[in-house]
Design brief:
This protein is of the alpha+beta class. Helices cover 46% and strands 26% of the residues.
Length: 1009
């Protein structure tokens, strides 16, 4: 095949010898990591090893091929590989570098993709093409995968964008519906405002009241929840999440009363009843929600991860185009409840919260006014006008009575100066001015006379701010603390007496919370009163958990009034962990109305007496348990005197279950009966010993055989107390039989152990010899007496000891090890190989090592002979093959070379001459290869001059590719031929592997003898 611009015949016309010039390029491309090939025309005439590796073909198979012969018929673009390759090569010969992607086939027919670079270069007057390949198969695969991933990602983004748009549209629709609902609610609010309006003056007061508390209302926390008619949650705001501790994702799709049930706190046993009542609030409202107005309820929440709080909610229907929904607004009113408790228990529940802010303010104002009117404290409000005068805007009934004013005759505002004398007015004005200037709440105590009696008042002034942060009014609270002072003195006396008592005293309120914990309780428990006050007494750390239910039940009984006092014994764990027994007397105190007020519990520490009782009980129980569960049979007898003067007989007083089992008799058939009647054979064996021990008190222990029962028994006779004798029996029949069996087994084992041809040694974990058989003595050439108790390492050559010790320790640590060989030196310096097979065993419940030792001298000898025969056979075959190559193939190739040379001279300028030139070069290369193969099979240098000379010749050949430093201490020129050939082939393989795979810059070869 000819290509425009290139004529293959030019090679011969210029006398171009490609083989001679290739040496100049080998140093460049043979070590290249990327394939490099050379094209002459469209035929590959050279390639480097990387091309061979990529194609999985040898150089001889690649040279002479065209690019499209090692390519699929068509390229990915559908063009024939042959047409496309010729076109690209043609452009390269025109001097235009070509870079393109191409699909090739390796020797297994597998496709791979390369990036090809074609560049024109000249050698003399001849034009050649250099071909560089870069494998981009993995890159193309990754790019394809990346494209797929990008496409999937784009589709996913488009899908998510569409979903978000739909969701956004849905939210817009719902917002419109909510706006319509809010408009309806605003209209309802306006209507309610008109209905409750009672004149312009009242409205102004309500607005003023709203301003007073606007700062409080603006801080109110509201949770909003929207459900469908079945109470399934469809919206749940962030504040609801905070109030109930339930995330939106956990609420939406669930019924709202089920969510409340998880959060409602109940410290009583009727929790299920409370939850059902709460559920019925929703269900009954749902049934009447058309005309039911607004539903209002409260709930107490608490539990794992949620602090206790009181929530107030109101529920109302919402009509939308999508149907009816239910709205719920929830607030945390825990602070309001706490404030009511601080006002000495006067708390008024907010009955209903409307969704409109105006009505909420009105209701809060009315309820607050009610609190002020019913408060036992003096409550008043005042302002300061532009002239600095103090004007009262409100007095509650208590303050009016204190001032002696008629409620119907008071017209607000009232000037301070018109109520008290000038001195008192100046005093109060100074206090009020201090509140205005500091803008903080202040507190002061003053006294006055009321009906001739000195009265002490504690007054608090609290500034009220508007939305701009300015004080618009001040609230004053004044309390008569004269009685409190007296009560406090009485309480101080009572507390001192309470803490001096050496009896435990605990006082709880109606909820079981501790209000007093006296000094004796602190001393005994180790807990200070501050640590336990306010806690339910059954939840104290001192109370064992298993007693808490009983304490709660007892407390409930006292609260109900069924009993006014109870006694109970319980445990206490002190702070140091000590267990104490306490005997309690509990008494309930009720007020004049029969309401439970306090529980007073007085206790006495009875730990010492209780411990004595327990020790006695435990001791008795231990002896009884031992008596009934012991394996030995035990019988207790009392002597029975014989009226005829004969030796006394013995009557069974007590027997344990083991004896009943042995005799196979019932309890009543033994106890109360004579020994001679129940077990005559036993009576004959031990009656004498019973009488002897009864007289002397000395224990007697014996073993006897009872032929009638075919039993070996051991018995001990002792006297537990006067006129009582006891016998403890043990059946040792099986034990004696086992001893005989063990003796037989020991004899059999010893016979096998001593008669084994393999050496058997038993070692302790420290590798000292526990036992050896005669075969071990024979292998080691040492007597058993010299080995017993000595470390086995002592009898192993020093060079092998670390190996043996390491392997044994690994095995003791649980690792599996194989049999291993050791070279053993006997007493006569005779070296023999032995094989040791160790494993871990147990002897008398302790770990030992069993080693089987075998003399493997004969096996090693056979293995060596087999190896030598294998090497000799292999080398003989190698020599024969080398001779055949040298004597048969070599001459034939030489003849072909001469014929090819003659033909080349005959046809120097024709196309046939060009083919003959290629043929000539191939034949010459084949001759060189045959020479190399023949030398590798049977190295002539090794046969003629020995190992050192052969290695030096090989190193000279390798030095062209890798610098090698060679050193040896061998002086004798020759060794045994088998040794020389093995050493030569090992060294040659090492050098070849270093050149091919190690990527080394130099090598060092040492040969020592």
């Amino acid at each position: 095949m000819a290509v425009d611009g290139f004529d293959n015949s030019m090679l011969d016309q210029q006398g171009f010898n490609l083989t001679e010039h290739l040496g100049a390029f080998k140093a460049l491309y043979e070590q290249a990591t990327e394939p490099i090939l050379i094209l002459s025309g469209t035929v590959f005439i050279e390639c480097n090893p990387s091309a061979e590796e990529m194609l999985g073909m040898l150089r001889r198979d690649i040279v002479g091929c065209t690019p499209f012969e090692i390519s699929p018929e068509y390229q990915p673009d559908g063009v024939l590989s042959s047409e496309k390759a010729e076109a690209l090569i043609k452009e390269a010969y025109r001097g235009i570098p070509q870079t393109f992607e191409w699909v090739h086939l390796n020797s297994h027919g597998e496709e791979f993709i390369v990036e090809v670079n074609l560049n024109l270069f000249r050698v003399g007057t001849h034009s050649l093409i250099s071909v560089f390949w870069r494998n981009i198969t993995l890159q193309k695969y990754l790019n394809a995968e990346l494209t797929k991933y990008r496409k999937r990602l784009e589709d996913l983004v488009a899908e998510k964008t569409q979903s978000l748009e739909l969701l956004n549209n849905e939210y817009i629709r719902m917002n419109k519906e909510l706006a319509a609902a809010n408009a309806d609610l605003a209209a309802a609010n306006e209507q309610l405002t008109e209905e409750i309006s009672r004149g312009a003056s009242l409205k102004e007061k309500l607005i003023a009241s709203e301003e007073k508390f606007r700062s409080f209302i603006s801080q109110a926390v509201e949770g909003i929840c929207i459900t469908n008619e079945d109470w399934v949650v469809v919206e749940w705001n962030a504040q609801m999440e905070q109030l109930l501790g339930v995330a939106k994702s956990q609420a939406v799709g669930f019924r709202v009363y089920d969510i409340d049930s998880e959060c409602i706190y109940s410290g009583t046993d009727n929790r299920q009843h409370i939850l059902e009542q709460h559920k019925n609030i929703y269900l009954s409202y749902s049934a009447h929600s058309v005309n039911a107005g607004v539903l209002s309820f409260e709930m107490t929440c608490g539990g794992s991860g949620i602090p206790h709080k009181t929530l107030h909610s109101y529920v109302f229907p919402i009509e939308t185009s999508q149907g009816r929904f239910m709205g719920r607004i929830t607030r945390d009113i825990s602070i309001a409840r706490a404030n009511e408790l601080e006002l000495e228990g006067y708390r008024i529940r907010l009955e209903e919260l409307l969704n409109a802010k105006t009505k909420e303010a009105n209701e809060l104002s009315l309820k607050f006014k009610e609190i002020l009117r019913s408060s036992p404290d003096n409550v008043f409000f005042f302002q300061r006008n532009s002239a600095g005068d103090i004007l009262y805007t409100y007095f509650n009934p208590m303050q009016l009575r204190f001032l002696g004013l008629d409620p119907d005759s008071v017209s607000y505002p009232v000037a301070l100066s018109g109520l008290v004398d000038k001195e008192a007015a100046e005093y109060f004005k100074r206090q009020y001015e201090q509140c205005f200037q500091s803008q903080k709440a202040i507190n002061y105590i003053d006294s006055t006379q009321l009906n001739g009696v000195d009265v002490v008042y504690n007054t608090s002034l609290i500034p009220l701010f508007n939305s701009d942060g300015k004080i618009v009014e001040v609230a004053g609270f004044s309390r008569n603390i004269s009685y409190d002072t007296k009560v406090r003195d009485e309480q101080t006396f009572t507390a001192a007496l309470f803490d001096m008592l050496q009896t435990l005293v605990v006082v709880t309120d109606s909820q079981g919370r501790i209000v007093r914990f006296n000094g004796e309780c602190e001393r005994l428990s180790g807990y200070a009163s501050k640590e336990v006050e306010g806690m339910e007494f059954w939840n104290l750390a001192v109370t064992p958990p298993n007693q808490r239910e009983r304490l709660i039940a007892r407390f409930s009984t006292l609260i109900s009034g069924e009993l006014d006092s109870t006694d109970i014994e319980s445990h206490w764990f002190t702070k140091s962990g000590e267990l104490r027994w306490i005997y309690w007397k509990n008494r309930a105190l009720f007020d004049d109305y029969g309401e439970f007020k306090f529980l007073i519990a007085t206790g006495v520490d009875v730990t010492n007496s209780k411990r004595i009782e327990l020790k006695l009980s435990e001791s008795e129980q231990q002896y009884r348990t031992l008596f009934e569960s012991m394996h030995s049979s035990l019988a207790v007898f009392k002597p029975v005197e014989n009226t005829l003067g004969a030796p006394p007989n013995f009557e069974f007083v007590e027997v344990n279950p083991s004896l009943l089992l042995k005799l196979e008799l019932e309890y009543d058939a033994i106890v109360g009966h004579l020994l001679s009647e129940v077990v005559p054979s036993l009576n004959r064996g031990i009656a004498t010993d019973l009488r002897l021990v009864l007289q002397s008190g000395e224990m007697v222990t014996k073993e006897v055989y009872l032929p009638e029962l075919q039993l070996h028994i051991t018995y001990s006779v002792f006297r537990p107390r006067e006129q009582t004798v006891a016998v403890m029996f043990d059946d040792v029949t099986a034990h004696r039989a086992l001893e005989h069996e063990m003796a037989d087994r020991e004899h059999k084992f010893r016979s096998i152990f001593d008669g084994s041809k393999d050496g058997i040694a038993v070692l302790n974990p420290d590798l000292s010899v526990y036992d050896v058989n005669p075969s071990v003595q024979s292998i080691f050439g040492v007597d058993a007496g010299q080995m017993m108790g000595q470390s086995i390492l002592k009898f192993i050559p020093e060079g092998e000891r670390d190996k043996v010790s390491t392997l044994m320790n690994k095995m003791l640590n649980g690792l599996a090890i194989q049999n291993f060989e050791v070279e053993l030196t006997k007493a006569q310096n005779e070296s023999i190989p032995i094989e040791i097979s160790p494993r871990v065993i147990e002897i008398a419940n302790r770990v030992a090592i069993l080693c089987v030792v075998r003399d493997i001298s004969e096996r090693k000898s056979i293995e060596n002979r087999i190896i030598q025969a294998t090497i000799e056979t292999e080398e003989r075959e190698r020599r024969l093959l080398a001779a055949d190559l040298h004597d048969e193939i070599g001459p034939q190739l030489s003849s072909l070379k001469m014929y090819a040379s003659s033909l080349m001279r005959k046809y120097p300028d024709s196309e046939t001459g060009e083919i003959l030139t290629v043929m000539y070069n191939l034949i010459r290369n084949s001759i060189d290869n045959v020479r190399v193969i023949s030398n590798n099979l049977s190295p002539l240098m090794l046969e003629r001059y020995g190992l050192v000379a052969a290695l030096m010749a090989e190193i000279e050949h390798v030095k062209r590719l890798l610098p090698v430093k060679f050193s040896t201490n061998i002086e004798s020129p020759r060794f045994d031929s088998k040794i020389e050939i093995v050493c030569y082939r090992v060294a040659k393989e090492l050098l070849n592997n270093t050149v091919k795979y190690a990527k080394a810059k130099s090598a060092d070869l040492q040969l020592s003898y």
